[in-house]
Write a structure and sequence with these properties.
Blueprint lengths: L5 E5 L3 E4 L6 E4 L2 E4 L1 E5 L4 E4 L2 E3 L5 E4 L11 E5 L6 E5 L11 H14 L5
Antiparallel strand pairs: 1-6, 1-10, 2-5, 2-9, 3-4, 7-8, 8-9
């Protein structure tokens, strides 16, 4: 199956991981895992890059790479279950809080009054 960039909706709770595979093991009494978060059913995320592993699990990238070159990934589906379903190809809308332009202008005026240039 071919996946396309776009908005995907979680069909159940899905873990966010630091790489496109599950890593979980126990050392002593401590669990070591690559899980960094989770999303609940109904949550929508924009996915733009996909990887299918040899175990037939397909993963979608949900973040840009950080300074170490590591991105965050969500399992879209494995051989038994679909976790994320494609719902549209529109990129996410960024909502700018009301009044942000006025606050930015005031900050620029203050900075100039203190001698900062930029």
């Amino acid at each position: 199956m071919n996946f396309q960039p776009g908005i995907y909706e979680a069909k159940s709770t899905v873990n966010i991981r630091r790489e496109p595979r599950v890593i979980e093991y126990k050392i002593g009494g401590v669990w070591i895992t690559n899980q960094v978060g989770r999303i609940d059913a109904g949550t929508r995320r924009f996915l733009d890059s996909f990887v299918t592993n040899k175990d037939n699990s397909t993963w979608g990238r949900v973040s840009e790479a950080d300074s170490a070159g590591i991105s965050e990934w969500i399992c879209i589906q494995n051989t038994n279950r679909v976790f994320m379903q494609f719902v549209g190809d529109e990129p996410p809308v960024v909502v700018v809080p009301a009044g942000i332009e006025l606050r930015l202008t005031a900050l620029e005026i203050w900075a100039r009054s203190k001698g900062y240039t930029g």
